[in-house]
Amino acid sequence: MPLRALAGPARDLSFFSGLDPGVRIVAAVVLLVAVLNIVGTFLLWRSLRRFRSRFATASPADPPPAIANAELAGATLHHDGIAQREREAFYRRASEASTDAIWEWRVGSRGIAWGDAIGERFGYPDARAGTTVDWCLERIHPDDRPGTLENVRRALAAGDEAWSAEFRFRRADDSYAHVLARARLFRDDAGAPSWVVGAMIDISERKQTEDALRWTASHDPLTGLPNRGFFDRELEAVLGAAGPDKVGLILLGLDNFTEIRDAWGPAAGDALLRAFADQLTDIAPAGATVARLGVDEFAIVVPRLPPVRATLETISAIAARLTPSFAFQGAAIDCSASLGAAFAPDDGRDRQALLRSAGLALYDAKAAGRGAVRIFKEEMRVSIEERAAMILIARDAIADDRIVPFYQAKVDLKTCEIVGFEALLRWHHHRRGLQPPKAIDAAFADMELAARLTDRMIDRVIHDARGWLDRGIEFRRLAINGSAPDFVRGDFAERLLERLHRAGISPARFELEVTESVFIGQIADNVERILNTLSSAGTTIALDDFGTGYASLSHIKQFPVDTLKIDQSFISARAADDPDDLAIVRAVIGLGQSLGISTVAEGVESLAQVNLLRREGCDVGQGYLFGRAVAAVHVPRVIAELPTLWQVGATGEIEARGPQFARPGEVSVADL
């Protein structure tokens, strides 16, 4: 509608008077929008004419090579009815306002004209005066140039109307920017290619963000190592490309990570993991991939391993280079790692099979002790299955309340009186009856299960003790065993004392037996505090299997030890004739006498052993001579009758008094 056609009605507003107010408002808005559209179109047309000749066209010269022309031209757009010069002016004006590097090129010329952003974003202010096609190509990263040009060729061959590509473009300071380049080609009225306009957008920040996200998705943020997902893909790729060569897979598990983290705190655990990751990265063979698979488990994938190198020596060399300690807050913390290795294709042709084999080797290494190294062998499958069955049986036995204590008497070698009992773990099998702890031996290497077994034993022993006291039966002192997992829990002493308090039993009626191994490692601080807490409450502390572990005199001095238990391996039937065994027995007894610590001999089976120990000054004996471990129901009988079976004879030696006591053997739970 012509502008003057609207003038009359606009001047005479009387026609609105007869309309509804709402209709009048709508009509007014429609009229206003129409006027603004017409005015805006007129202003845009005038602006296009004003800026259509801002950039001087690059002087035509010999045309650039045909390939270069085609590669930078991009796709074509057919004539759309807008004048060529008006479109040029529009794009030039856009280049002034844009932060992207706008460029244009007249088909047939050698030069390219640039907008202001080529100087501001990429450091080439002189390029605004014009560059050549070759200048642009030279600044595309050499690794990206072939692919970029190939993209252009494919677009042209397909007759596409637009071209775009991502590549790295060199800035003036020789750094590279990630750019997104887009180009369009316009034709003249005759349909011939005449003008190309494009934009080069700096997407470096976006690429950095994308790269960071990809890195995070495939790497462990704490250690910086590849994570499980990356490892799985890498192992698949390595196995697929192995050919005739072997592929080595090494799994590594930190032996005492939980103890270190519990004793020193989470910061120490993180520091250990980072230090261990750095070590593995440094010592891994060239071309190997190091990854973190779990909390304290790592892996090394060694591709293209010649058969001659697929040996225990190769793996042992890696283990030998691991540093056994790391520094944290000025302290050297001891740590170690167990290694299990498997090789493809012998131990598994695919990722899952090879992982299973290496995992079995690592499991076997951990069972062998700290810092052990194992290469997979087929018989490991049977061993692991047996261990897994033990753990399952132990879990079921705990859940079904089939863990029971049996009690073995301790006898004073001077008076032949009972001085107490040791509570020994037994468990009941549905078909086989009563079983020794050895039948679930693997459960004691499991931190969680071992602690639960101790808790169950303590509850049952306290229950039995309360029952005896209620019946007026004097059992003197009960010994219970504590293992390393119990000391990892910092509140072990408080929990034990609280249970005794609830049952109304004095802590002085209990003794805690520990092996020498608990004194070693990062839980030593926990051990010292727990033992001191129990000792202050009246509970005595016995050092079990003395002479077979790692304890030193400094440990006996540091910890509140009241009793040394001489291991039964030194109290053999030939102890009297074996000078080495006898020397050890005498040394332990003499050490106890010097320090005011009582001594207990385990494994006593004959009168000859008893009298030898008595002559050497041993205080207490324990073994089959005085009776096997019995169920709680038989303890009152043992207390009543055992002292009547032995006496100190006229020669000063212990001898039997009358007929031998029919000692009750171990009975089934059904008899309790």
Alpha carbon gap, first and last residue:
110 Å
Major sheet characteristics: 8 strands, mixed, barrel
Number of helices: 22
By DSSP, the count of extended strands is 25
List low-confidence stretches.
1-82, 661-672
**What class would the helix/strand composition place it in?**
alpha/beta
Radius of gyration: 44 Å
Strand order of the largest sheet: 15-16-18-19-20-21-22-23
Task: State the share of residues found in helices, binned by percent.
Answer: 40-55%
Shape: elongated
Strand content: 15-25%
Write down the overall mean pLDDT.
80
Summarize the structure in words.
With 672 residues, the protein is of the alpha/beta class. The chain is 41% helix and 22% strand. It is built from 22 helices and 25 strands. An 8-stranded mixed barrel has the order 15-16-18-19-20-21-22-23, surrounded by 4 helices. Strands 1, 2, 3, 4, 5, 6 and 7 form a 7-stranded mixed β-sheet that branches. β11 and β12 form a beta hairpin. The N terminus and C terminus are likely disordered.
